[in-house]
């Protein structure tokens, strides 16, 4: 396991800042430690030599200043560590969320549970990494050589002993690290599978209850939790063992230096002042390296999580560059495509789609789709089940891979145009709370008049303050569908959007309500917006300005 992933420094400005600030603090701390050791050794020697107490003033002041600087730099380390962890976590979270936003279908292999674990407790583990481990690592790299030079200058024999025994500690650490890596990785995987299992059970709890299988999940969760507990104990065992090994190695090294100084002092080959200076300094030479070992285990979870996050970010970048053949967003490919059929200038306003090809998992599900919709038009796309209606909407939202030309108000469809589009999918996706809360979701500050309008246009004839249960329970399928439509309309009005996309908004409505909805959507479009709805029923299509029929699905 690498002590510091170079990608972290490359990607994160905060991490670079942390290492630079840490380097400066380490130098300050090394200087203060040397000053403290020198002042203490001089003070004791002068005292033993019977020097006049008046001559102690300057040395005492230096001792005090050095001790204060050491304490201050220690406190600054704490502060820089926690601020660094916070900033790096925020940067990685932002980058990951932005990558997910660019590819709402998800980064390959990133399940909801993995994303939740990584973005939550995973990256939180970086607190230990930045707060405890990295400061000691920087101290080891920057301060230890400075301290060894100081020791060597005072007594080259002690310096030589340190140079010989010091590398033993990293060798022990590397051996222990190899054992830890596998254990820690298993631990991280267990945490992920625990989250995944828990999310799955939670998501399907109502179904499990209905079929009387809920109790069985208790055993399943208990098994995964037990596995996690036992792997945690394994990590702790390795941690204690390695802590003991490192302490032993460091203590023996200091003892070796002390014995050599003691013997030479007794033999009269060496004077007291440099001997004391080296003895005071010796533990500090080994301390950062010892602390690196001790903090290593606490920080490995953070290391694993940051590596996971960096792998995902690399993968998202590779996907965006098209290097892996994974689906790209509409923004990525549509913008790169030359205009098909030699179309010259895009329409200044409205939706213009030419020869659009929508792909799912690399295979086309819709081909040769054209449409020109001017502001004020209500367009209905009809097609049987599986003909690609939802995929078309996904493409317009930038959620599916496309080829061809698609522009809204002259701008290629994709992440940039998404803010001008309001959308409601086939499933209502309502939340616990009032109907009003659901309709105003994300735009709670919009004027109340918009809510009333959205409710009317969506065909919601229920009180806005009616409280819904978790997942929007308490409404019929048709009622939930109308609330979802009202929410999309509300978003369109609140953001002054240009395009409203509705995926089968009338599939659960009776014919009268379906016709009424068609009329209201046309009324909404007339205000200068484009409304595009999909359906496989004729009722909605009657109200449309334009109906586009998708080709029949080939049957095997
Ligand atoms: N996320 C996806 N990944 C892979 N293939 C998909 C995905 N979503 C849809 N498809 C495939 O794309 C094709 C078109 O599906 P789509 O959902 O767009 O049809 P639809 O016309 O909306 O159908 P329905 O009226 O039943 O909702 C189908 O063959 C389906 O299997």
Automatic annotation (TrEMBL):
The keyword Transmembrane helix applies. SMART domains: AAA. It is found in: Cell membrane. The chain crosses the membrane at residues 55-77, 133-154, 160-180, 238-266. InterPro entries: AAA+_ATPase (IPR003593), ABC1_TM_dom (IPR011527), ABC1_TM_sf (IPR036640), ABC_transporter-like_ATP-bd (IPR003439), ABC_transptr_CydD (IPR014216), P-loop_NTPase (IPR027417), Sigma_54_int_dom_ATP-bd_1 (IPR025662), Type_1_exporter (IPR039421). It holds the Pfam family ABC_membrane. Residues 321-336 have a biased composition (Low complexity). Keywords: ATP-binding, Membrane, Nucleotide-binding, Transmembrane, Transmembrane helix. This is Thiol reductant ABC exporter subunit CydD. It comes from Agromyces tardus.
């Amino acid at each position: 396991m690498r002590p510091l992933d170079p990608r972290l420094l490359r990607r994160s400005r905060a991490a670079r800042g942390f290492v630079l600030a840490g380097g400066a603090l380490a130098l300050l701390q090394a200087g203060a430690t040397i000053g403290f050791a020198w002042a203490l050794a001089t003070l004791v020697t002068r005292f033993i030599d019977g020097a006049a107490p008046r001559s102690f003033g300057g040395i005492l002041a230096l001792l005090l200043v050095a001790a204060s600087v050491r304490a201050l730099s220690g406190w600054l380390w704490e502060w820089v560590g926690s601020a660094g962890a916070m900033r790096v976590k925020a940067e990685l979270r932002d980058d990951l969320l932005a990558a997910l936003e660019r590819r709402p279908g998800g980064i390959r292999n990133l399940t909801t549970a993995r994303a939740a674990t990584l973005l939550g407790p995973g990256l939180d583990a970086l607190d230990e990494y930045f707060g405890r481990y990295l400061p000691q690592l920087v101290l080891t790299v920057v301060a230890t050589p400075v301290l060894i030079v100081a020791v060597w200058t005072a007594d080259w024999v002690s310096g030589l002993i340190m140079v010989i025994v010091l590398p033993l500690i990293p060798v022990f650490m590397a051996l222990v690290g190899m054992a830890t890596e596998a254990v820690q990785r298993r631990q991280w995987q267990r945490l992920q599978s625990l989250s995944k299992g828990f999310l799955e059970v939670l998501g399907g709890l109502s179904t499990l209850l209905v079929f009387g299988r809920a109790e069985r999940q208790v055993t399943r969760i208990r098994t995964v939790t037990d596995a996690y507990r036992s792997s945690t104990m394994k990590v702790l065992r390795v941690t204690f063992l390695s802590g003991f090994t490192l302490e032993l190695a460091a203590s023996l090294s200091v003892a070796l230096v002390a014995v050599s100084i003691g013997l030479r002092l007794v033999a009269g080959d060496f004077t007291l002042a440099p001997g004391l200076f080296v003895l005071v300094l010796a533990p500090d030479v080994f301390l950062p390296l010892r602390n690196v070992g001790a903090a290593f285990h606490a920080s490995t979870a953070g290391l694993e999580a940051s590596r996971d996050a960096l792998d995902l970010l690399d993968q998202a970048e590779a996907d965006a560059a098209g290097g892996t053949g994974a689906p790209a967003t509409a923004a990525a490919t549509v913008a790169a495509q030359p205009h098909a059929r030699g179309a010259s200038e895009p329409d200044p306003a409205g939706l213009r789609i030419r020869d659009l090809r929508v792909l799912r998992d690399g295979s086309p599900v819709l081909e040769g789709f054209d449409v020109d919709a001017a502001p004020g038009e209500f367009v209905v796309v009809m097609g049987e089940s599986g003909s690609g209606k939802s995929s078309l909407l996904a493409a317009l939202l930038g959620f599916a891979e496309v080829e061809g030309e698609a522009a809204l108000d002259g701008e290629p469809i994709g992440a940039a145009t998404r803010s001008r589009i309001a959308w409601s999918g086939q499933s209502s996706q309502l939340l616990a709370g009032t109907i009003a809360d659901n309709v105003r979701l994300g735009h709670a500050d919009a004027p109340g008049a918009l809510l009333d309008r959205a409710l009317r246009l969506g065909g919601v004839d229920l009180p806005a303050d009616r409280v819904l249960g978790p997942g929007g329970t308490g409404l019929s399928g048709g009622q939930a569908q109308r609330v979802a439509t009202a929410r999309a309309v509300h978003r369109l009005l609140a953001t002054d959007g240009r395009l409203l996309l509705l995926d089968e908004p009338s599939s659960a409505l009776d014919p009268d309500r379906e016709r009424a909805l068609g009329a209201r959507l046309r009324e909404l479009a007339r205000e200068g917006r484009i409304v595009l709805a999909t359906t496989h029923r004729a009722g909605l299509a009657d109200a449309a300005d334009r109906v586009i029929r998708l080709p029949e699905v080939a049957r095997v």
